[in-house]
Amino acid sequence: MKETRPYGMDVSAAKAKSATRKVQIASFLGGGGEKLFFFAGPCVIEDFETVLYEAREMKKIAEKLDINLVYKASFDKANRTSVNNFRGPGLEKGLEILKAVKEDTGLPIVTDVHESWQVEKVAAVADVLQIPAFLCRQTDLLVEAGRSGRVVNIKKGQFVAPQTMAQAVAKVATTGNEKIMLTERGAAFGYGNLVVDMRGLAVMRQMGVPVIFDATHSVQLPSGQGTCSGGDRTFVPLLARAAVAAGVDGVFMEVHPDPDKALCDGPNSWPLSDFERLVRMLLKIDSCVNGE
């Protein structure tokens, strides 16, 4: 029986990687067969000292392993489960902290934007504007992010089919900005659980944009603790290995010095002390995918 593949795609991981366009992120290229890159950092800015410490440690690891790393931290988590949950320092203070971290470490920055009016201010500091999964269909936000000229990373909604993300890509592209990336972070699987369909990674790569796998949000249990989300970080390496074997261009991880004390997304965050070991493992898999 003849095998039927969506879009007539070639699901070879190596060929799929080279099929995506290359996107300039600060001083390096991501996608198009370039080496695996990483978006990593805490869920939210808790305080300046913690963020700076982690960024400096991650910079050391990036230099040691010769990887391209973009530091991630949110100035505001606008979609927390409870109104009483910690959200972060806010736009002005948060951008001030991210700017200081960027100047101190030289690392590029990726952070979330939730509303159109935030884009201009955030683009003045961040190298990558990230569209949260819940907002991946917000036309005005996507278009405004595109107009900024910055790289736009759109997280696939938990409620959206992979092929539907072509429309989100098209919205940003109407501005003439083709520096677009897509991130998989799991799909709703009943109430309070997520599942990852690795076939979706191949589907989204057919859109020609670099695809990132969010290894930590994919193990989240949305609202699993009643007033906040739960998760199981023990599955992070398993899913990350599978995604890199499938040929993703980059890996996203929320990393924290002490996940059990994190003020947001602690249960699904990866420990900073284990970050280097996991990255080494993923690099070995990526080299196999590329036939090295």
Structure description:
The chain is of the alpha/beta class. It has a single domain (6-289), classed as TIM Barrel, CATH 3.20.20. The chain has helices at residues 13-19, 48-65, 91-105, 119-123, 139-147, 165-173, 199-205, 236-245, 275-289; strands spanning 23-25, 28-30, 37-41, 68-72, 109-112, 128-131, 151-155, 180-184, 187-188, 194-195, 211-214, 220-221, 230-231, 250-256, 270-271. The strands form 4 sheets. It has an 8-stranded parallel barrel with strand order 3-4-5-6-7-8-11-14, surrounded by 5 helices. Strand 4, helix 3 (91-105) and strand 5 form a beta-alpha-beta unit. The model has no long low-confidence stretch (mean pLDDT 91).
For this entry, give a set of tags.
two-stranded antiparallel ribbon; 292 residues; TIM Barrel; 8-stranded parallel β-barrel; globular; alpha/beta
